[in-house]
Specification:
Radius of gyration: 18 Å
Mean pLDDT: 89
Helix content: 10-25%
CATH class: Alpha Beta
Order of helices and strands: HEHHHEEEEEHHHEEEE
Distance between the termini: 37 Å
Number of domains: 1
Protein name: MaoC-like domain-containing protein
Pfam families: MaoC_dehydratas
Number of helices: 7
C-alpha cells in the first residue's frame, strides 16, 4: 500500500519522454522462503487442482512486492498505473523444492517504440542452488503517439480462437469480489481491479479482473494437459475481463504442448491467448 501511494502521488509521466534514455535497474532478494499458507490461498483463488504441484504463475505473485519496488525506483521512467499488461512469458525450468530458499532478482532495461505506443520489458528470475528454476518476462504498454523505429511492429503471437478439433471447454466464473480477493493475496491493489468508480477513471466501464488471475485460472482449467517442466508459457492479453462475469476457456492439445484461449461465453471476443510448450 505505501508503494501504491507513492505511485499515485508521484510526478512520473504516463509515457517516457522522447530521447530520455533507459538506465538499467536491478533488484535482488537473497533469501525468499515460500509460505504454505499463502500458496494455499492462491490455489483456492485460481481453483488449482490438488495434484497440480506448484502453479506455474504463482511465483509472479510472490515477486509482486519487488515489482512495486521496481516501479517506484527513481530510474523507472513512467507511472505504472498508466500501463497495460500486454504480454507475459513464463519459463519453468525444473521442479522447485518448496522448502528450500530461492534467490529472486528483478531486472529492467528495455523501452521499445512501436506503432501504437511504448513497451517496457522487465525480467523476474528465481534461482535455487545457483540454478535458474523459473523466469518471467512481463511486457507493459503505454498508449500514445510514438515515433517507431523503421519496421517496428507490435509482435503478434496468437493462435486461432476457433481450433478445428479436439477442443475442450470450461465455463469460468469471475466472482464479484475476485478483484479484492486476488489483491489481498498478490499485493496488487491497482484500483481498476477493486471498484467500478476507480475503473471508470482509467477508461473501463467497470472493475477489471487481474490479468495474472485470468492467466492462473486458465492454467488451472488446463492442468491435466500441461506438459512437465521444462516448459514455456506465452500469453497475450487482449480484451479486459469485467467483474463479475463469466468467460469460456477453450483448451486443445498440440504436438508439443497445449493452446488455451479465454473468451466471452458466446465465443465472439478474445480475452487472452496462451501457448504452453515443452522446452
Amino acid at each position: 500500500m505505501p508503494a501504491y501511494a507513492r505511485v499515485m502521488l508521484g510526478s512520473k509521466p504516463y509515457r517516457a519522454l522522447a530521447h530520455s534514455g533507459t538506465r538499467p535497474i536491478e533488484l535482488e532478494a537473497q533469501q525468499v522462503k515460500l509460505s504454505a499458507a499463502h500458496l494455499a490461498r492462491y490455489c483456492e483463488l485460481c481453483a488449482v487442482p490438488p495434484s497440480a504441484g506448484l502453479p506455474a504463475a504463482y511465483l509472479h505473485v510472490v515477486a509482486m512486492p519487488m515489482h512495486m519496488q521496481l516501479f517506484i525506483a527513481k530510474d523507472f521512467p513512467v507511472k505504472v498505473l498508466g500501463l497495460i499488461h500486454l504480454r507475459n512469458t513464463i519459463r519453468v525450468m525444473r521442479e522447485i523444492e518448496l522448502h528450500r530458499p530461492l534467490r529472486l532478482s528483478i531486472f529492467f532495461d528495455t523501452i521499445r517504440l512501436t506503432d501504437f505506443g511504448q513497451e517496457y520489458d522487465f525480467t523476474t528470475r528465481y534461482e535455487q542452488d545457483g540454478e535458474v528454476v523459473w523466469e518471467e518476462i512481463s511486457t507493459m504498454f503505454a498508449r500514445g503517439e510514438a515515433v517507431p523505429k523503421e519496421g517496428s511492429k507490435r509482435p503478434v503471437i496468437e493462435r486461432s480462437m476457433h481450433p478445428s478439433s479436439g477442443v475442450s471447454t470450461t465455463v469460468l466464473e469471475v466472482p464479484k469480489k475476485i478483484g479484492w480477493r486476488y489483491a489481498r493475496v498478490s499485493g496488487d491493489v491497482n484500483p481498476i481491479h477493486l471498484t467500478t468508480r476507480m475503473a471508470k477513471v482509467f477508461g473501463f466501464k467497470q472493475a477489471v479482473a487481474h490479468g495474472m488471475w485470468s492467466l492462473g485460472r486458465c492454467l488451472s482449467a488446463a492442468a491435466a494437459q500441461l506438459p512437465q517442466a521444462p516448459m514455456q508459457i506465452d500469453t497475450q492479453f487482449k480484451l479486459p475481463v469485467y467483474i463479475p462475469s463469466q468467460a469460456l476457456a477453450r483448451i486443445w492439445s498440440t504436438d508439443d504442448g497445449v493452446d488455451i484461449s479465454m473468451c466471452t461465453t458466446r465465443g465472439d471476443r478474445l480475452h487472452l491467448a496462451m501457448q504452453v510448450r515443452r522446452l
